[in-house]
Amino acid sequence: MKRLLMTVCCFILLLSFACSPALSKVADGSETELKTTVPSNSPTPRTTPEPTVEPTPDALVMAPVDLTLKEYNPFFDVQFPTGYTIYGARFDSADANKGTKDYYGLYLTAEGIPSEIVKYCATLLGATDETILTGFVQSIENEGFVEISGTFDGNSARAQLKCTVAGYDYEQCTDVDGCRVELMVDANEDQAKLYHNLILANYSLAMLGDLADQLGPETIRSDMLCIFVNTQKPDKTAVYVTHDVKDAATLLNEITTTLQTSWYDEASASLGIAYAMQQVKYSFDIANNLVYATFSPNDNNTSAGDFQKSAVSFISLGFDSYPNDGLCIYKEDQNQLEIAIAKPNWGHNEEWNVEFLGTSNGCFLGMWYTEATGLFHISVNKGDEGATAEYIVAENKFASDVYPDEETQQRLFSEAAGVSEGDYRAAVFAIFEQMVMQRFGMTWQELYALPIW
Fold first, then answer.
1. Which of 170, 186, 202 is where one domain is finished?
2. 331-371 residue pLDDT tens
3. Torsions phi, psi of 292, nearest 5?
4. How far apart are CA 420 and CA 88, in angstroms?
5. Helix (H, G, I), strand (E, B) or coil at 198
6. Dihedral, CA of residue 164, residue 169, residue 173 and residue 177, to nearest 10
């Protein structure tokens, strides 16, 4: 049944090309057509640049997402009730003007009855007096919002809760029936240093080129550092840094006249610059010679300060990156062709890691590779008919399972591949292999190993 559903999905997905993310061009700007007749043997790979393999989760050091882990997260050992989901974390430097201290914040969505969520959070912060609890409950029931003060692990702490309704796509997360919760606890001097180091490891000046020296480490205000990490939406993760410079007006003029900016608003003395996936907004306080930077690494899983563009990457080959969906997609609408990559640590919500959709000799082709199983599920559809096969990558052979029957499989696969003899299943898979080789100059395995940028 699962295979039948995938066969139907192949047809539906191909019909939805026009509604998919924006079209990517071939890396060299040319247009090529998908071959419909292929030899029974796969093409011989040409020598290609060695791809840069992305770091695995075990190798991560000082990445933004680490802010939610044990070394940084005071609430890490808390066993939150079922339905409580962390979607973000924050560190903010003390602000004398607001009377706040260095603090850590953890952001959650909490499913359930708001009054019970309030009681749980109040108890977590040691606020157990019945009269006080009653006041908190009344506030959430009457106003839909409450602020709780207390302590956690010996430090001053507080919580803010807001009632929410399931399905609403809040800017930072998708709400649930219950509450949006922010837990905050003051950080001591030693803890603050840990956060400072994490922030600086995830701040980059690469987009400034030769002008980076003017915003060097000695200009960074250690009392004005902040980081917010969104575990669900990497594009919302941001690092906030303030630079104390000698001449903000001169630096602003040098940047706008020598560098390519994404945008520039002269009236507000602010601009944006991009370096691969990284983006930064600079705001210049001319009177006080301060530069405020809002830096977006757009990747929670690697140290942004160490990031360098690779010579060969998905983006350089014409793929588009969709970090919130955990996907990189290459498309040729004119040829009804699409390749999608979704590596296991990217957060994509489907099982497959490589998807190929295309057409050949009037047949619709769909192939899905799953790294965990080492299998390619191959589907061929024409009209109301469909057939599938499974290719075992490690053994370089096809599984013995046949759907729907051997005669239909052979007929549809042979027609799609344009062959009358030989291994018709291998001939269909070779369409995918040859397409990858023609467009990218490498095998599909080499393509899959590439980094995003």
1. 186
2. 999 999 999 999 998 889 899 999 999 999 999 999 999 99
3. -100, 125
4. 57
5. helix
6. 30
